[in-house]
Design goal:
Layout lengths: L2 E12 L38 H13 L11 E4 L9 E4 L7 E8 L9 E13 L3 E4 L4 E4 L6 E7 L6 H17 L12 E11 L9 E6 L2 H20 L7 E6 L4 E7 L9 E2 L10 H8 L6 H12 L3 H9 L1 H11 L5 H18 L31 H11 L5 H14 L3 H8 L7 H14 L1 H8 L5 H12 L6 H13 L1
Parallel strand pairs: 10-11
Antiparallel strand pairs: 1-8, 1-9, 2-3, 2-13, 4-5, 5-8, 6-7, 9-10, 11-12
Length: about 500
């Protein structure tokens, strides 16, 4: 009997806000333990929560980005449970009335479950809640840091539409890219800003009934999710093939050993004793408020890539660069929309411009206004701070396409343009770099090259056609790179054959 995997993901994302969800404490990673705390986030008696409006905006923005419905009524509930890192002994979350629901994510994927090279995973809900503190275990004691307690946390719950470990990996990467480019979260997994619970079951292929759900908790890397899913799918299938029975349970992933281990078995439902948060009014967003949030919606990465391929006839590889690097893509688009040769523009931006920016220590992923490293110490200059005007790249391509300069000379001109900010036309004129297309002058260079290089001449006449390249190189050297390469080839062939 063949089996298939059924996977659903619960992705927890810390929102990009300056303060916590219910108080004015800083939402800041890396502070000394228990320094970003107050009576509200410590859950002391008599305190009242005040919702962070920016967190509410970013949750609704996520709903728009994930094609979700936005209900006109939502509320917060108390999810009651005891754990040392939950200072109130309950979590404020959204239960039966979330802020967003019924959406989907499309992403590039060619495996099982894809259609025309795309995967699609439905989103059950993206709801808002609060993060808990962080436990650190020592030899005989444990410590808890409540700096993270109360940080705005969004849980994005998928439908069980994922059919493989690879599909889960691609979905998570697509989801993270949407949230990053939408300004919803910084998405730094090393700082715990994105965590994932993986729900996996297997069933006979074609069956509609779900198998026993096995949950793998608190995954903190997408590659770890893929490895854990691969292992767990194989483990479950092996148990069923050998006549065993799977029981709903929670497991942990041991990344070093490469195995999952059982933590506890689970009942069908937890008794969290949910009830509406009595200290907060329900959420009833107005049309004007929703319109303001919707104005923040950005073009989705996949739609951007598809549009660049369609409008500018770019290959997938080039469009992928501009999909991932928004600032560079915006820079390219500003030039390409006025160009007759967008592919050539893309080549100069992706290959030459990025290489020189890296060499100069420039950071082309930062938009204008974000010109410093995260700690504020290192100046970072992006494409908006280049010395030359963007249209100069178009001018350079036009000079090449018209035959006025060769590709080798164009490389020299681009570097000079990058360093000085001068236009290509000015550089070509000042340095006398215009391509030589005068046949008389080129014939003299060819005669000189033939006379000085008898060995490749003999090889060519003996049938070794590639020997012509050596002679072309000599002609270009004699002309200091200015000779028209096409004319050089024609004249050399004519002279050698005669």
């Amino acid at each position: 009997m063949e089996y298939e995997a059924v996977i659903g993901l619960e992705t927890h994302v810390q929102l990009k806000t300056k303060s916590k969800m219910w108080c004015g404490c800083a939402n800041q990673y890396g502070s000394e333990p228990n320094t970003n705390v107050c009576p509200v986030c410590l859950g002391l008696p008599g305190v009242l929560p005040v919702p962070n409006e920016e967190a509410l905006r970013k949750t609704i923005l996520t709903g728009f980005l994930l094609n979700c419905e936005i209900p006109r009524y939502a509320k917060f509930d108390r999810k009651n449970y005891f754990y040392p890192d939950a200072p109130k002994n309950y979590q404020l979350t959204q239960y039966d009335k979330p802020s967003t629901q019924n959406g989907f994510v499309e992403f590039e994927f060619n495996g099982l479950g894809s259609v025309n090279g795309l995967g699609k995973v439905r989103i059950t809900r993206a709801h808002l809640e609060e993060d808990v503190g962080k436990l650190t275990h020592f030899d005989r004691t444990s410590g808890v840091d409540f700096n993270r307690a109360g940080v705005p946390l969004m849980e994005i719950v998928s439908e069980p539409d994922i059919t493989s470990a690879d599909m889960a990996y691609e979905y998570l990467n697509a989801l993270k890219e949407i949230l990053l480019q939408g300004g919803v979260s910084d998405g730094d997994m090393e700082k715990g800003m994105v965590r994932c619970d993986v729900n996996i079951s297997v069933r006979p292929f074609g069956s509609k009934d779900l198998g026993a759900k096995i949950e793998i908790k608190n995954m903190n890397s997408f590659s770890g999710v893929r490895r854990a899913a691969e292992y767990e799918i194989a483990r479950q299938i092996e148990i069923l093939k050998s006549g065993g029975k799977l029981v709903q349970s929670t497991r942990r992933w041991d990344d070093v050993a490469g195995i999952t281990e059982e933590m506890r078995t689970k009942e069908n439902a937890h008794d969290y004793r949910y009830f509406p948060e009595p200290d907060m009014m329900p959420l009833a967003p107005t049309e004007a408020w929703l319109a303001e949030v919707k104005s923040r919606v950005v073009e989705l990465p996949l739609a951007r890539k598809q549009r660049f391929m369609r409008e500018f006839q770019l290959p997938a590889g080039d469009a992928e660069v501009f999909k991932s690097n928004v600032a560079l893509g915006n820079y390219f688009e500003g030039i390409a929309k006025n160009s007759k040769n967008p592919k050539a523009i893309a080549n100069w931006v992706i290959n030459n411009l990025q290489a020189l920016m890296t060499l100069e220590g420039m950071h082309n992923k930062f938009e204008a206004g974000e010109q410093f490293s995260p700690d504020g110490s290192v100046p970072l200059i992006g494409v908006n701070q280049l010395r030359f005007k963007p249209e100069f790249i178009n001018e350079l391509v036009a000079l090449m396409d018209s035959g006025k300069i060769s590709s080798r000379i164009a490389q020299e001109v681009f570097k000079e343009m990058f360093e000085t900010g001068k236009s290509p036309a000015v550089i070509v004129q000042e340095k006398g770099l215009a391509q030589v297309s005068d046949t008389g002058a080129i014939e003299e260079f060819c005669d000189e090259a033939i006379a000085a290089n008898p060995a490749p001449v003999a090889d060519y006449k003996a049938g070794k056609v590639v020997a012509l390249n050596s002679l072309k190189g000599q002609v270009m050297k004699l002309s200091k790179g200015k000779a028209n390469p096409a004319l050089v080839g024609e004249i050399l062939e004519r002279k050698l054959k005669s």
